[in-house]
Amino acid sequence: MDITPTVFKLLTDYIYEQAGLVISEEKKYLIPQRLEPLVRELNCRSWEEFYSVIQARNTPALTSRIIDAMTTNETSFFRDGHPFEALRSQILLQLSRLAVARASREVVRRGPKLRIWSAASSTGQEAYSMAMMIDELVRGPMNPGIQREDFEILATDISSQVLAQAIRGRYNKLEISRGMPQGSRERYFRQEGDNWVLREDVRGMVEFRQMNLMGNLTQLGAFDLILVRNVLIYFNDETKKRILKQMHGMMNREGMLMLGSTESMYGLGLPFKTETVGGTMVYRPVV
Question: What's the CA gap between 146 and 144, in Å, rounded?
Fold first, then answer.
């Protein structure tokens, strides 16, 4: 089935309004590639009819299926390497000392002393990588006096489908092999047939929640570390600025934000200052 320019614009406008994803003319092939199975399932004989069905039904379930199909869920454990080396060697230690300082104050903060947010977490590898590193720090000789309970990790994604897999913590041979050190796999996973399942206590360190980055993010509260990596590349500058402006307002004064290796805030005019930690660029809020 051919997509007319008119229907292509209607569909891409709809996807942008729902998820902020920008699909250019050069990537027009993504529409049939990812949505044709749903078109056939709905017995639509044309893209025009498919768009009419979307408008007529207008249900969260159908919208969710469309966004699930259009979302790129590329991720891996300890993705890109060096950012996680910086987290392991320096950033988590800095945050841990902050937690110790907060615990020593006269008015002690109840519950977790540090909050970490993995935005657009996909199937959970980034959030679980953080959880494993925190567990290693707590158990290791460099522990400045913190416990696992001092950390709260929130992982969000727009796709209910990938969140369901993330919550299960079950990964196939390819997924477990991408970025996962042999020692970490043996320490934190058990093999079940062709799959590897993360230890329940480590899964329990992460809370997963469905969240659209186009929505009101401030309801999530304040954070000390925000990871919004390899997702802003799918948004236009206006959407990036709106998302990052909200995140700025959600960061504690000593907080840090990390982007993907190919992403930056250049030209957005936002109140962040850059800092290099262990060869990795982080952004701190300017208050």
Answer: 6
- Distance between CA atoms of 213 and 284, rounded to whole angstroms? 20
In this predicted model, what pLDDT tens digit does every residue of 205-260 receive, in sequence order? 999 999 999 999 999 999 999 999 999 988 999 999 999 999 999 999 999 999 99
Give phi and psi for 196, each to the nearest 5: -125, 130
CA-nearest of 158, 157, 71, 162 to 117 is 157
Of the CA atoms within 13 Å of residue 274, those in its CB half-sphere come to 10
C-alpha pair distances (Å), 95 with each of 7, 44, 99: 49, 53, 6
Q: Quote the CA–CA distance of 46 and 51 in Å, as a whole number.
A: 9
Q: Is the pTM here over 0.85, yes or no?
A: yes
